[in-house]
Amino acid sequence: MENLVQGIYTGERALFKSVDLNITDSIFEDGESPLKESKGVQLNNCIFKWKYPLWYCNDIKVNDSTLLETARSGIWYTHHIQIKDSIIEAPKTFRRSSHIELENVDMPLAQETLWNCHDIHLNHVQARGDYFGFNSENITINDLNLTGNYCFDGGKNIEVHHAKLISKDAFWNCENVTVYDSVIIGEYLGWNSKNVTFVNCTIESLQGLCYIENLKMVNCKLLKTTLAFEYSTVDAEIVNHIDSVFNPTAGVIKAKSIGELIMDPTKIDPSATQIITEE
Description:
- Helices cover 0% and strands 49% of the residues.
- The protein is mainly beta.
- It has one domain (76-277).
- Strands 12-13-15-17-19-18-16-14 form an eight-stranded parallel β-barrel.
């Protein structure tokens, strides 16, 4: 493997089609697509200042590096990429890519990030931006702090542990989602989704958890959650008070108490849902 140290790379496709490089303490600036179609590249303490740095690449490892905001749309059509201890300031990173591992990564401008990707693992990641994880699948997450609306819209096969999501319309149009030991704050959670499970979670959501097929909740708290469960099939164990429940389709709802229970027989069959409270 060839070592490149303390380089400054300019111009379009500066290191085009590179193979088996170890690049350290280097800067990529003033030139698009510097590493396009490269493979077997390791990047250590590098700075990317220009657009499209890692397109059509394979087998990439990035450590202690920075993609500035101007390195936007930075990683598209790239497979088998590992990024650790780095900052990705650039928006629209990761499109149609796969086998992505992010560990201890900060993404302060993460709007439209991780679109149409698959086989993703996020560990200790912070991100801020709307439409994070759109239409992506096979995702495992541990310790994610995300602020941004509409996250994971259209996602499939998602497993989340120890996350905090501040996101209006999270997990819309999803299939096979399981969230453990997490906090979710935002309106209209989970609409139009299938096979969604929350375990040991705290949720605040105006008119959330509606239009879901096979919703399961285990040992969860609902804070200021109104008009919940509309047209959902649900098996819910809620350990505190629910402000209001609105026309669930079928299932069982257990709660400490329910403030307002709306079961309109012209819209649903009230007998299809069992309501159990401590009161």
